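Morning, I've got a small favour to ask if you have a moment. I've been staring at a protein lately and its backbone has me curious. You're getting the sequence in one-letter code plus the fold written as tokens. I've dropped the whole record in just underneath, so have a look:
=====
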Amino acid sequence: MGFTIEDMLLVSRDRYQMKLIAGEAGWSNSISWLLMLEDVTIIHNFAGKELAVTTGLGFQNEDSQLELVRHLMAHNASGLIINTGFYILQIPPSVIELCEANDFPLLTVPWDVVLADMIKDLSIRVFLQSTADEQISAAFIKAIEEPDARAFYEKDLLAHFDVDGTFQVVLVTTPDLDKMDTVERRRIAYRMQLYLSNLTHNGHFFYYASCFVIIMNALPISVSKEIVNGFYQRLQKKMASFPVYLGASDSVTDIGNLHTAYHRALAALHMAQDQKTGLQYFSEMGIYRLLYSVPDKELLNQLSVVPLSPLIAYDRQHDSNYVQTLELFLKYDGSIQAVAEELFIHRNTVQYRMNNIRQLLGSSLTSEQEKLPYRIACLIQHMRL
């Protein structure tokens, strides 16, 4: 997850007397670079995840400090370090409250700290971590594409992850993500990473095969679900103009099974897109776990169209809804009354339709064995093949 606010504090508490005074919930924010600023002009060029550092020269009053924080948050900065003791002696409570309310990390270092040395030191650490992240991403992709080639990916992951532990995969996408240029896609990735709270060294985030991939390692299901739910809620709030879809796998054990988790997350993502649910967990998909895991789309099409073909043809010719009627009949376990209420029609009408449907299908639809092919066919009808 890159070099984070938490990483920086571990290095800087003693070395630079750095303190986190607000926005503790943003401790997992990763940092793309450190930039010195004394006015808000340069902020408009931020790509995301920049950590701003200021002496306070251009922000010596409460209003200017509030404006600074608002600009930084609007441009998806990772946080703000204020060099206190000269231009800014004390940070106003309103600034602290604004940062705290938005989980925006606000940090201080005393005036006697040499900022040039601090920025150089931390920037080198950011660069080194970004290089390591590229190697980690490549190793995870190798594990997904060639799970049997363990010797080629495990060595790059051992120092960072429990390769014998559990893994979960979450896939995130938005329409036309694969058509965006690299800069635009990176901006979205930076924003998303800021909303992915409470996940640092037991997780990783990268782009692969038209999706952003989140890998979580050695986390209890309850914790990972809390992280994913919180992430999705923040995406809905902060990126309301982007329709975002997430698919989350269940937990698998051992890095050699990462490809299984990936394909389960992909199945969940496809269902989230088809059903417009936004967030879908593989474990909550029921029989769709099987259907969305079938790679042979032609087979699924046959399982859907062939059993229902007499009703599809009848509906097309008579502008009726026999397929929908059958689906509801199966959904409500043969309850004529429930189907009538769902369709807002008289139960006699439903009974009449069902008699015709049985004749068209050549089936009494009484036993489970008779119903099963039609249950499956109706389910596949809602999949985008």
Notes: The chain has 14 helices and eleven strands. The longest helix spans residues 115-145.
